[in-house]
Amino acid sequence: MGPVLNGLTRLQSVENRLRAGKAQLTRCRRNVVIQENQVRSLQNALEAKKEEIQLTKIQCDRLELELKSRDDEIAKWRASLNSAKTNKEYAAVLTQLNTTKADNSKIESQILELLKDIETDEAECEDIQKQIDEQKQQLEKTRTESETLAGKYEAEINKVQAEWDEVAQAIPSEPLEIFRRVAETYDGHAVAAIEQQDDRKGATYSCGGCFMGITAESVNMLMSKDEIIRCPNCTRILVLGDSQV
Ligand SMILES: [Zn+2]
To answer: Is the C or the N end of the chain the one with fewer CB within 10 Å?
Structure first.
């Protein structure tokens, strides 16, 4: 292998560091996004709870109004009870009065249930609000930390990028273009070292990227020439492995 293939091998190692640095930066920023989403989902839960309380209160008001009108009805039944002229009439009014009273006590217990629900929901709201406050505090801390870290990572990435540019400068444009294209396809892994397996019959070779067999001719060519040979299966740029150089 000559300067082109050696250059590509070096470029691959810089590319690996560059990609690792960029991945680190993305992870560090993602932490902030994850926590922002947590706060948002808590806020949504709080809004939903508050809306629920609002609806329960409306229902409660409606029942209280109904209760009041039924109380008026009871007063009326009581008055008619006093003015009943016959036993039959008295008994009929008494039945109405008792039925209305029974209905009222049902409504009263319904109202009590609803008030209890409101109380529970309000306690839950307080709890969620407390969680939101805590999460927000945590978020601010994470944001500050990740900004500091991101700055450090960015500086490191810029340094590695400069190194990449320098190494790339020494590589002719055509092989460099191939490197770029294959790197894009394989998440940065453009160059694959040939792996060698030795047995009694001799050595067999395979692509370090996809593990498909590589001919001995290809290996010989790489040993004698400084030309790009690509894996016939995965198209990665082949270079000699440690056991061949
Ligand atoms: Zn391959």
So the answer is: C
